[in-house]
């Protein structure tokens, strides 16, 4: 289920996005 993986990454995105790499979000 790729959707689940994408959602999981989106959940951790806020932290990474706020960390420094906003480009790593959409990826």
Explain briefly what this protein structure is:
This protein has 27 residues and is mostly helical. It has one helix at residues 2-19. 67% of the residues lie in helices and 0% in strands.
How do the helices and strands line up, and which of them pair or pack?
Layout: H1 2-19
Biased composition (Basic and acidic residues): 1-10
Region (Disordered): 1-27
Report on the architecture of this protein:
The protein is built from 1 helix and no strands. The protein has one domain (1-27). With 27 residues, it is mainly alpha-helical. The two termini are 17 Å apart. The longest helix is centred in the middle third of the chain and has 18 residues, at 2-19. The radius of gyration is 9 Å and the shape is elongated.
Please work out how many helical segments DSSP would assign.
1
Overall shape: it is elongated
Number of domains: 1
* Unreliable segments of 5+ consecutive residues: none
- Which secondary-structure class do the elements indicate? mainly alpha
Task: Count the E strands.
Answer: 0
Helix content: 55-70%
Q: What is the string of SSEs from the N terminus onward?
A: H
Arithmetic mean pLDDT: 56
Instruction: Using the CA coordinates, give the radius of gyration.
Output: 9 Å
Instruction: Classify the beta-strand content into a percent band.
Output: under 5%
Largest sheet: none
- The separation of the N and C termini measures 17 Å
């Amino acid at each position: 289920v790729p959707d689940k993986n994408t959602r999981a990454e989106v959940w951790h995105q806020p932290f990474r996005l706020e960390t420094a790499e906003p480009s790593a979000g959409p990826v």
